[in-house]
Amino acid sequence: MPVRPTQDASGKLMVPHNEGSTTPPSISPPPFIGGGGRAGGPGGMSDWEWLTRTASPLVNGQSDRRPLTMGNPAVLGLWSFATVTILLGCYNLFLPHKPNHIILPTALLFGGIAQYIAGFLDLFYGGTFSGTILVSYGAFWAGSGMMMLPSAALTLDSYATEWDLAQANAIYHFFWSFYTAMLVGISLKIKSGTFILTWCLFWVFITLFLTAIYYITDVSAVLRVSGMFFIYLYREKLN
């Protein structure tokens, strides 16, 4: 089974052979369809070539070859989280009492399903904590988007009064804020944790907590402040 190559600081591809060695493996490349040559022959591929694919140096940033490995799915997960965050933050800040159903496609598909898939890929990629975060909030945004669908929104009719619905929303957001607070605590303990990770999770906690407070108090100023934190969180994620 071929070993996945890596890149050193200068962008040179290195293929591990034995423990602690970075010399090319002494294995023959598979037959090249349409060629017929072997490594170094006309129409053939070297060991380095069949373990990599061509890539633009401008896009790849290092060389014109790229290892045959999966890209980092956390990038997609962070962008999907950030995009739906800024959309909801803008509505909470500028239009706190207006319907925000226009963000349904983004909340359900990009912030929800796309982030959900990226989280599972990140788990496969080895990111246990980051993958858990992406799957968790992918499910959160997918569920939030589903509640904007008319068929799912009909389930809210089971609440007798608007106050009952507000209390349910408050409990829902309180739960997610406390779950985020737990993630903040874990991020302070794990070895791979970073300050920016803990910082972003902290502002997620503040935002969800203020949203829960809004549903209890019905004070639009609280929702506007949560919208400001949403936008601030978006900026931090992109940084």
UniProtKB/TrEMBL annotation:
Keywords: Membrane, Transmembrane, Transmembrane helix. The keyword Nucleus does not apply. One of its GO terms (molecular function) is acetate transmembrane transporter activity. The keyword NAD does not apply. The chain crosses the membrane at residues 74-95, 101-125, 132-150, 170-188, 195-216. Its main location: membrane. It holds the Pfam family Gpr1_Fun34_YaaH. One of its GO terms (cellular component) is plasma membrane. It is found in: Membrane. InterPro entries: AceTr, Gpr1/Fun34/SatP-like. It is a multi-pass membrane protein. Belongs to the acetate uptake transporter (AceTr) (TC 2.A.96) family. This is GPR1/FUN34/yaaH family-domain-containing protein. It comes from Phascolomyces articulosus.
